[in-house]
Batch of 3 targets.
Target 1
Amino acid sequence: GENVEQHPSTLSVQEGDSAVIKCTYSDSASNYFPWYKQELGKGPQLIIDIRSNVGEKKDQRIAVTLNKTAKHFSLHITETQPEDSAVYFCAASFRPEAAGNKLTFGGGTRVLVKP
Amino acid sequence: DAGVIQSPRHEVTEMGQEVTLRCKPISGHDYLFWYRQTMMRGLELLIYFNNNVPIDDSGMPEDRFSAKMPNASFSTLKIQPSEPRDSAVYFCASSFRPGSDNEQFFGPGTRLTVL
């Protein structure tokens, strides 16, 4: 089955700096890569996703890049703010149209933005 | 919509007792997922349903765990008998059918402590 590895496990950045989280996946058939943000005491929430036919996607201060050849993808947060402090999860899935969107999650990265 | 609803939010029980966790998915969602989150193992998919039918239960740890979805608006995850190693946060998530949206919407979770 799919295996997703995520690094680093913890990341501390100064407010205003950038944060980068990297993930690798094992199944070359995977074609959908979402990123979820989990705040304390809450369930994960989707913040951005990318499909395998796209190399990069951006939404305001967050961006995701995908390298299918190397089987890795990354999350970039620019101009970090204290409210970006949370646990971030990457995930991967192979989603043929006839099946469900079963996700395999990475281990998570705890991001702390210091004011 | 109120989002995915889970109950109870917290459950403390003694080893050997039966535990039932409940989930109400977002109306109109065809897929329902049960996850377990621990520090050691991260976010693990236990089972998921499509149109109330279990599709993949390969993540269910052992026979002590069972899940049902009697109708489109309700699902339960039961542990019988419970053990201390079952202590974790259990999340329920729901999503639309493939082809429309991949996003999984997570509930707030149930924190289970087995003494």
Target 2
Amino acid sequence: DTEVTQTPKHLVMGMTNKKSLKCEQHMGHRAMYWYKQKAKKPPELMFVYSYEKLSINESVPSRFSPECPNSSLLNLHLHALQPEDSALYLCASSQGATPHEQYFGPGTRLTVT
Amino acid sequence: LAKTTQPISMDSYEGQEVNITCSHNNIATNDYITWYQQFPSQGPRFIIQGYKTKVTNEVASLFIPADRKSSTLSLPRVSLSDTAVYYCLFRSNDYKLSFGAGTTVTVRA
């Protein structure tokens, strides 16, 4: 199984809502990532978890809160988002937390109204 | 901050070879360079990785000069299905993991 799954595929939320994005992989990878991608731009790294511990936070606003409940799951909790946070949120995993081969999920298309 | 340069776009015809160069003059000493392909509304897909010299797999080749300040992805005999955005990904010497700006490759019949 070389698949990274993400739910939901699409999400529309108001600025006062709380929602969560979910990501799952069963490849035994020990590093998991969240990226944000705006239209016609490259993905931007947000967080990296290595062995279930947060190892990189790229100065992401606190309205984004990551969580890694176990080695297969990665969540991104969203609260009080702004319209400019609308984007495609991508999850990825890899054997180690390096630029080595990363497997990406299909992403969650988030719209903040 | 990591600085990369990739051509914004490239046009090609079926059966031709396409070469895309990414410059990364502040790459970290010990890390690999990886390349990804992305179709609209999908996550990026790994193509190839390398550290130096030349690496080849079943879909592409990657050329990295000795100074490692750039890398060139070579797609042999492209087809219409190779129309996509191609990104390099690397870690800079301040340990920031960054994608290049991306190159949109359009293959025409």
Target 3
Amino acid sequence: QVQLVESGGGVVQPGRSLRLSCAASGFTLRGYAMQWVRQAPGKGLEWVAVILYDGSDEYYADSVKGRFTISRDDSKNTVFLQMNSLRTDDTAVYYCARPAGFGDHLPYYFDSWGQGSLVTVSS
Amino acid sequence: DIQMTQSPSALSASVGDRVTITCRASQSITNWLAWYQQKPGKAPNLLIYQASSLESGVPSRFSGGGSGTEFTLTISSLQPDDFATYYCQQYNSYPGTFGQGTKVEIK
């Protein structure tokens, strides 16, 4: 059974950092271009970042470029999102998502999502 | 980046109604479009991919259509479990942008 479990969320002051983890089980992370999607309170879904299946490249939303870094440790079946210089508008539930496709550089829709991790940026 | 625009933003409907939601892309995405359903406090759930392919386990009252820049999600006969927010997402290119969502409420 495919499962994604996010952790590391919490309350943080503006300008500080936080690192989210997404632990995968029921499948091998290797070969998937794992992604993060966030949802601010009462708002819609916003795509955040992707790391390609082989770790060869990463893409980011303009709103987080230069502040957030996505990484992966396939040996631990885990994806990370390092969030620096956090702002109040980064407050959101952060979801880890698995694409339906495997082993190439093409974008795909998401067939599995984690339960989400709440990040609150507030002074 | 490709912009996705959904309409309407919200709608009220009754059980048994036929409901259609529209999603427009700012440029052609061929048929690389997915639809998700999200209920409060839950992660999104995949309904439709490649514009019109029904995800396994999703009731057949859900259907998708369109190509190029205009797409639709139709619920043929609205059921109590269908009251939720629906999002389209393009996956023609990164970033995989979402529409702003359509909230389906009980009339």
